[in-house]
Design brief:
single chain; alpha+beta; two-stranded antiparallel sheet; two-stranded antiparallel ribbon; 2 helices; 4 strands; 22% strand; globular
Length: 64
């Protein structure tokens, strides 16, 4: 099983209890906010400014 969220993108190994627990913890602590890159409303960790897609783009050299 694979899951997706705006923090880390795709979650693999969802059959593993540790991965499921960490995923659940992340989902509980997410907040809804506007991504500074794409300006979409996303659910990410309070200390994040960019969604996973924008963070990946920044790592590839994109400037917002």
């Amino acid at each position: 099983m694979i899951a997706y969220d705006d923090n880390f993108g795709e979650w693999h190994d969802m059959d593993e209890p540790e991965v499921r627990n960490f995923y659940a913890q992340c989902q509980r602590t997410n907040v809804e906010k506007k991504c500074k890159g794409c300006e979409q409303l996303v659910r990410i960790q309070p200390h994040y400014a960019y969604c996973n897609s924008c963070a990946d783009a920044i790592e590839r050299g994109t400037n917002f």
